[in-house]
# Entry
Amino acid sequence: MPDIALTIIAALVSILGFILLALAQARHWAAVSKTPVEQRVNSAWLTSAGLGAQIAALILTIQAQGSSFGSLLWTVMISVAAMAVTFTLAWRPKWLRPIALLLRDRTPKTPGDV
Amino acid sequence: METTFRNSMAWLHTWAGVVIGSVLFAIFWMGTLSVFDREIDRWMMPMTRLAAPVASLSLDATVRPVAERLAAKAPQWGVLLPTERVPTLRLSWRDDKDRTVTRYLDPATGAVLPEAGSHAGTGFIFPFHYRLHLKWMDLGYWLVGLAAMAMLVLLVSGVVIHKKIFAEFFLFRPRKRLQRSSLDLHNLTGVIALPFHFVITLSGLIIFIGIYFPQAHVGAYGIGQEAKDQYRLEARGGYQREKTNTPGTLASLDAMVNHAEREWAGGRPRFVRVWHPGDANSYVEMRRSYARDITMNRDQVYFDASTGGMLYRFEAAPVMTVQRFISGLHFIQFEHWTLRWLYFLAGLSGCVMIATGFLFWLEARRVQHAKKGLTGVRVVEALAIGSVTGIVIATLAFFVANRLLPLGSSFAGEDRAALEMWVFYLIWLATFGHAAWRRADPPTQPARRAWREQCMAIAVLALAAVLLNGVTTGDHLFKTLTRGYWPVAGMDMLLLLGTGVALWCSWRLSRPPATAKTAASARQVSRDTVGEGTPDA
# Structure
């Protein structure tokens, strides 16, 4: 696969990872999904997946650009990716709603279980 | 004395930031622009807007005749070879008054291009970043070093005093009142880009180890000039031999280039210098390109000028290579457009961090100072406006002056390049005066008029720069975009983007300040921060 495509995928994976990390926080979940935090999948799962995505992005950038350029690119790229997610949360939280919908907890609840 | 460690750090963060913030902003702004210094050169030196460099360059056919004509009696002449970002050859030599003379050549024909008459990006903006153009007793280097140390202190103390570093990692509330939203943005740009800010600041200090830590070699090499020379030779390499004052010849430079490329397993030279031209003991120095690696290698090969035989070869030892890797992280001399743009964005985030730090300091104290009749906020606000929007205006005025001053013009003994710099400094000074004059009225409100008028000045100057480039060079945006001439198209587009952002800021500043419903928000800010939220001056 061309290096540029791998790099773009790495950036998208990093952005997705930061979205998961943000949605693991009750404040951002509520603002994006407009649903109670109880309807979200386990936040520890989201946090782990978000951090895992950053590691995956590192592996992809190293694969695409080599160890020295790849690790440097990753270091600066994750900062820009996290800022992009933050500004989306601040100005256009609706854009992230489709992702939040996928992260609703679909396990059936027993009566009285919230 | 503060009662807790966190309070002490808050005090340190607050006051180190206010005292050094103006210098830090100037360093960050110029550093951010330096990421595109070669592209700024193309914009400010239209005569160097050549097509992509030729694939096979002959130094014997292009550079040598010009150097032998212009620099025959110079003790040395050197040429920087074309790169992906610089389409010209850059020939330089020392004249009989020991001044450096520089000429740009067309690598396709060897033709000498008209004098640029500008220090532009590489000659003004980049050196401003690391020495503020204060050469007396290396004062600029030391001020920048002090600011870099302060920046490291600010980063560490900022992390210590941030109570909710993870809980507020993604938090920015632009609709809250200024004090709250500026603190959000300060924390956001500080925390999220922390790895970049830390690495870029520390590497900036490490680059100038020779200035900031001049005795570093003493432990290993001993004291005295001989020890210092030995250290320099082992660290940096280099070859010298005296003139014989008897005539000599110069063998083929192209053959020497080929020889150097074989020595470097395909690595290309970036710089070629002929020492003692025309002398029997003349020799040729070649330095390897940085294009393909982060590390700014110190690889060099020297040849005997008359025979073309290799005299000396140097590669840095591991410790020096680490220093050169760290330097390379900072200088980004490698060819990598994605990283270049990311560095530019991260640099801008540093500018935003410093500017919002100022804004938060001002908003946290404004009402208290007004009640007590103190002038601290007024003075710092004028300094902040001149330091933030002022240096942007001065930079844009520098670009506009470049397009308005005719080539070869001079005034009061100053040449065109110096006049451009005078415009920068005088306009920058004027912005401080303007900020002091258009102060906040009433003093409980921000100095909106000053900020707004300086934003308008940015918008007008950025637009004027784009229009003047089109009118004076014919390389208007439509033409550069359709022909894919990205150095000039990119600069014009960023200037237009700057116009848009400045107009938006100006429009936002012209709206009446939000007053309702935010007292609770202000109280929340005070609770969320230690020390900073409490007016203490």
Residues 209-331 of chain B form one domain. Residues 74 and 96 of chain B are 7 Å apart (CA to CA).
